[in-house]
Design a protein that fits this description.
The chain is α+β, with helices and mostly antiparallel strands. Helices cover 26% and strands 18% of the residues.
Length: 266
């Protein structure tokens, strides 16, 4: 007597397998945009959290020092130039924490934009992605020079001073920190479009914001402490279209406004 299954197994046919594969492909096509959207939204949320912590650190710095941190100063230190920027200091290729780190609980976690991976375009900064309003708020020093008597001029002696926060008429509409970006990557000095402080259009065009987050948005911390997003990159009427393309990388990068209104000016 032969023992066997009363109902022998039946293998899938080619048609059935194709139907299963097609159904899986359709499900992936339906679900993938949602997964990407959720992932993009999570990174944008992480970015706004970073900017909020940097903004709080800046407020604490102002409370302790009575002024906004310098955007960048150059100091002669034993014959070597030490660069003191708002986020990092650099001396002879060595990078150390900058002035805001003492006011941030987790500085390593908040210095990197989660939607940007790339090398710094300013020295050897290990973390990149954010910039600071240098045209209006941040004091900016020039490279050390020597006066007629042979005395070295550096640091605060050559700095262009920023506008005191109390003199800004619209704190809620004035950007302090944001997603920095130009055609070459990230930048750390936010520039206003009208070129009133710099006198260098190329420098201004390289100091724009990166609209890199989900939906083409850029995130900004404002002087009143709130974090907002912008979705409409602007160019400047003073910047030629070719410069906007080859320096800014417009429209992937751009200004928050076509005038200085979003930066503390008119």
């Amino acid at each position: 007597m032969t023992h066997g299954s009363a109902h022998p197994r039946r293998a899938f046919t080619i048609v059935e397998l194709l139907i299963v594969v097609a159904v899986i492909a359709i499900l992936i096509a339906v679900l993938l945009p949602g997964l990407r959207s959720a992932s993009g939204l999570a990174r944008s949320t992480a970015c706004t959290s970073n900017l909020r912590q940097i903004s709080i650190a800046c407020e604490a710095y102002v409370s302790s020092n009575g002024a906004m941190p310098a955007a960048v100063l150059y100091v002669l230190d034993a014959g070597v130039v030490r660069t003191i920027a708002w986020d990092f200091e650099q001396r002879a290729g060595a990078v150390t924490p900058g002035p805001l780190w003492d006011y941030t609980d987790t500085p390593l976690a908040v210095q990197q934009c989660p939607d940007f991976e790339g090398a710094s375009t300013f020295g050897a900064d290990p973390y990149t992605g954010y910039n600071y309003n240098t045209s209006y708020l941040g004091h900016e020093g020039t490279y050390p020079t020597v006066d007629a008597n042979g005395t070295a001029l550096d640091g605060w002696r050559t700095a262009r001073m920023g506008v005191p926060p109390t003199a800004i008429r619209d704190p809620a509409g004035t950007a302090v920190f944001g997603d920095g970006g130009w055609r070459g990557g990230a930048n750390k000095f936010m520039r206003a479009p009208m070129n009133r402080a710099e006198g260098d259009l190329g420098l201004v065009a390289a100091g724009t914001q990166a609209f890199r987050h989900w939906g083409g948005c850029t995130c900004c911390a404002h002087l009143d402490g709130h974090i907002g997003t912008y979705a409409d990159p602007q160019s400047s009427p003073s910047i030629p279209p070719t410069m906007a393309t080859w320096v800014m990388g417009f429209p992937d990068n751009g200004f928050l406004s076509s005038t200085d209104a979003a930066y503390g000016g008119d």
